[in-house]
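G., the chain you wanted modeled:
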Amino acid sequence: MHQRTYTLLDELDSLLSAGKKVPLSNFSMVDRDQCRQLVREIIADMPADITAAEGIIQNQASIIAEAREIAEQAKVDANMRASHVISEANTKAHNAVITANRDAQEQLAKSTEQAHHMISDAQEQAANLLKDAEKRAKQMVDEQEILARAQMEAEELRQDTQAEIEKLYSDIFQHIDDMLAQLDRSISDKLTDIRMTRQQIGQSIPGR
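Predicted structure as C-alpha cells:
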C-alpha cells in the first residue's frame, strides 16, 4: 500500500475522531463532504496498491518455483554422484576379491610345489641311506654278522628315515597352514575395508 493511502486513512481517522459527540448517543457529527472526498481518494489509490501486491505475490511464486527447480536438480545431482560412488566402490570391492583370490591361488600353488620338492628330497635321501646301508652290509665278512648288522642298521635307518619323513611332513603341513592363515588374515582385512567403505557410502547417500 502506497504512503499516500496511509496518509489519507490517517486523515479520515483524525476527522472521525475530531467529530462532535451527539448528546445521549454514540454518534458523532463530522464533515460528510470531506469524509466522502477522502474515501474517493483512497478508492482511487487502491488499484495501484492491489497491482503492487499481485506483483509481490507473483514474484514470490516465481522465487518458490525457482527454488524448487534448484532443489530438484540438486537431488538429481546427488543421486548421480551417489550412484557413481557406489559403482566405484563395487568395482574396487570386486577387484579386491579377485586380487585376493589370485594371491591365494598363487600362494597355494607355491606351497604345494615346495611341499612336493621337500617330499621328493626326503624320499631321495631315504633311498640313498638304504643304498649306503646295503653297500656296507655287503662288505662285511661274516654272513651272520653281516645279516645281523645289516638288519640292525636297516632298522635304524628305517626308523631314522621314518622319523625324518614324519618331521618333513609336519614341517610341510605347518608351512602350508601358516601361509593359508596369512592369506586368510589378508582377505579378512580387505573384506573389512570393503565393508567400511560401503557403510561410509551408505551414510553419505541422501534419504538413507
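Strands lie at 20-21, 28-29.

Shout if anything looks off.
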